[in-house]
């Protein structure tokens, strides 16, 4: 039956069909693009309740539905909500391409969060794990699946620990070099060099942590709101 979306909040909305209004949730959505207000749709019913809602034939982006699994994947992404998807995108970009640690002078280094984690040489496995945590709540119908959103924070904390380890090791190596010049000289001069030129947190680390923290918050909130 042909209808039209009246309202949409990101997770649920109202569709108008056959002179009546019906509530529907994202799990009922069968389109390959996100629902939008005033979008023309096809509504199917089962026992007078909405069974599925899909873009009307000819709607923009419907050709993507021909790709096997496209509807399921896009519905899973839409289930997460726009803000969560954006946060995941920011997290991935920052973790893959923004330097999380930098060193100057004697310790020249620039590593991203994914480099620090050492998950796959080209970052493919890192992307797969992150995407899996995004869509898990859609496929695993259990309120505990919301905790999958905490994975980015766990990975970020592991990377942060490695930053600390690298910084400590670099400092110890520089101070150790100074022992050749005498204990007192080493404790002062070379420790100062280590502080000035050793690895330190970079912009990418802060962006990655902020996105991961937001996703963890959304995961806990989704867990508490799911019955």
Architecture overview:
With 227 residues, this protein is α+β, with helices and mostly antiparallel strands. It folds into 2 domains: 2-66, OB fold (Dihydrolipoamide Acetyltransferase, E2P) (Beta Barrel), CATH 2.40.50.140; 81-225. Helix content is 50%, strand content 19%. The protein has a 5-stranded antiparallel beta sheet, with no helix packed on it. A hairpin with a 3-residue loop joins strand 1 (2-8) and strand 2 (12-17). The protein is elongated. The relative contact order is 0.12. The model has no long low-confidence stretch (mean pLDDT 78).
Short description:
The protein has 227 residues and is α+β, with helices and mostly antiparallel strands.
The coarse overall form would be: elongated
Total beta-strand segments: 8
| Helical segment count | 7
Number of domains: 2
Q: Rg from C-alpha positions?
A: 25 Å
Question: Which spans of ≥5 residues are poorly predicted at pLDDT below 50?
Answer: none
Lateral strand order in the biggest sheet: 3-2-1-4-5
Proportion of residues in β-strands: 15-25%
Counting helices, strands and paired strands, the structural category is: alpha+beta
> What is the helix/strand order?
EEEEEHHEEHHHHEH
Please summarize the sheet with the most strands: 5 strands, antiparallel
Distance between the termini: 31 Å
Q: Helix fraction?
A: 40-55%
Mean pLDDT: 78
